[in-house]
Each structure stands twice: as C-alpha cells, then as structure tokens.
Amino acid sequence: MVGSYRVVTLCGSTRFKDAFLEAQKRLTLAGNIVISVGLFGHSGDNEVWEGMSEDTLTRTKEMLDDMHKRKIDMADEIYVINVGGYIGESTRSEIAYARKTGKAIRYLEAPEGETV
C-alpha cells in the first residue's frame, strides 16, 4: 500500500488493449494506484518492433518481461486481464511470480479450474 491506496499491477496479453484501459480506469476510480504495461506490442504499438534485429528484439522482450516482474514487486496484487479466459505464456509466468512472491491475484474473468 502507498498511503491508503492499494497498488495493482495489470497483467495479460497486450492484444486486449481496450480491456486494459477499461480496467485501469475502473480500478483507479475505485481508489487504487494502477500500474500497467508500457506499450501494447500486440495491439497498436507494432512500430516498436519494426526494423529491430532479431538479437535486439529478443533482448528488448526479455527486458520488458523483467520490467513487468519489477512492477509486480511494487504491487500489493495483480489483476489479470484474461478476456475470454485467455492466459498466454508470459501472463502465466507473471501469475506464477505473483504467487511465489505472495501477491494477491484477481482476474477479469474467473479462470476455469484455477490451473494457471
């Protein structure tokens, strides 16, 4: 918590940009400090990857993945944007990290069987 505000980090596929923005707005208005992704690489920020060498692309994606784990470190909980129940590999990794570090986990949509 920062002051009286819970800190929530959004996690999920960046293909769900509209859902991220809606959750950010809703959670902020509910009195949370919301930490989100820095760009939507799968939904509108494709120019970020254009012209990158494969090596630079790999290092950049690794940096962004690590950076998002640091955002989880700063949070009290994560909020998983799992539209249609979709949870990809990176998001599964973030959920596992949140569990390992004792963070609360909430979902946009209740996951089936909680096998994530």
Largest sheet: 4 strands, parallel
* Number of separate strands: 4
| Beta strand % | 15-25%
Percentage of residues assigned to helices:
25-40%
**Overall geometry:** globular
* Structural class based on helices, strands and sheet pairing: alpha/beta
Topology pattern, helix = H, strand = E? EHEHEHE
Average predicted local confidence, pLDDT: 93
Instruction: Please report the distance between the alpha carbons of the first and last residues.
Output: 26 Å
Largest sheet strand order: 2-1-3-4
Which residues sit in consecutive blocks of at least 5 with pLDDT less than 50? none
Number of helices: 3
**Radius of gyration, in angstroms, nearest whole number:** 14 Å
Give a brief outline of the structure.
This protein is α/β, with parallel strands linked by helices and 116 residues long. Helix content is 40%, strand content 17%.
Q: Can you tell me about this structure?
A:
The protein is an alpha/beta fold and 116 residues long. It has helices spanning 17-29, 54-74, 89-100; strands at residues 6-12, 32-35, 77-81, 104-107. A 4-stranded parallel β-sheet has the order 2-1-3-4, with helices on both faces. The longest helix is centred in the middle third of the chain and has 21 residues, at 54-74. The chain starts with 5 loop residues before the first strand and ends in a 9-residue tail after the last strand. The mean pLDDT is 93.
